[in-house]
Amino acid sequence: MSFTAKKYFTTYKNSLSQFFQYRLNLGLLVVSHVVSLSGLIYLWIAVYAAGQTVGTYSLEHILVYYIVLTILHITISEGVGMGFEVSDHIKDGVVTNYLVKPFSYSIERLVKMLGQVTINVFFIIPVIAVLLIIKPDSIPSPSILQWMQFAGMAFIGLLFYFLLYYAAALSSFWLHQGRAMVFALLLTSNLLNGSLLPLDMFPDWFQKLSRVLPFTYLIFLPIQTLLGRIEGWGFLLLVACLWALGLSLFIFLIWKRGIRRFEAVGR
User: Fold this and answer.
1) Which of 25-39, 132-146, 147-161 tops mean pLDDT?
2) Which pTM value belongs to this model?
3) What is the pLDDT of residue 19?
């Protein structure tokens, strides 16, 4: 194993070890999400109890939607925190420590995030198991294929969390408050990724727009995959590949320009 590969592996292991140091923080994060989820469940039960329906979703499906949404927020959304951290590293000049090292700062951030996501996934697996045991019979169990497709789509969402928030964080090379860009992306993302409402509850023009944007891969598409409501896999994968390549190229170019500016002003 090369030195660079060993460094990335060490970063991954260190990220895993942080679970034992910060498990209370993770526990509090889960509790906060569960409290928020409880309020949403109460709201939707009240809506359906009043005889109203929402789109093509049954009460069971809408509850599953928000439960899976909460699980995704707990597990794969580490890119948000990573974005704020990268922004601070640029602002405080920490990235200069990496310029003389024989490995990529960007890849190290990705590897660290993957370690954190691994911890989150193992933490949430028992919760998922309990939910599957206690779920009512009216909610069909996903097939093995659906679980595999869900895992694949969630992994794509994880990569987009990294690419989008890393790209936003690079604005700190030019903006003193680059954190504002990350926060603005967070607000925009929550609207466009299905965190507020399922995207198929919005007008047709909004749905068409969301299909060609990367945000839908963060939350909405993984959930729809698990619910068995996905069509046009070829188109979705093509759009995902194009966005992944485009964002990667954008990050590469902006990083190069940002570092040149960084060195020119002597930060």
Assistant:
1) 147-161
2) 0.90
3) 63
The answer, yes or no, to whether residue 157 has pLDDT greater than 90, is: yes
CA-nearest of 127, 143, 116 to 226 is: 143
Residue environment code for 203-236, b if the CB has 16+ CB neighbours within 10 A, otherwise e: eeeeeeebeeebbbbbbbbbbbbbbeebeeeeeb
Residue 28, classified by CB atoms within 10 Å of its CB into exposed (0-12), middle (13-18) or buried (19+), is: exposed
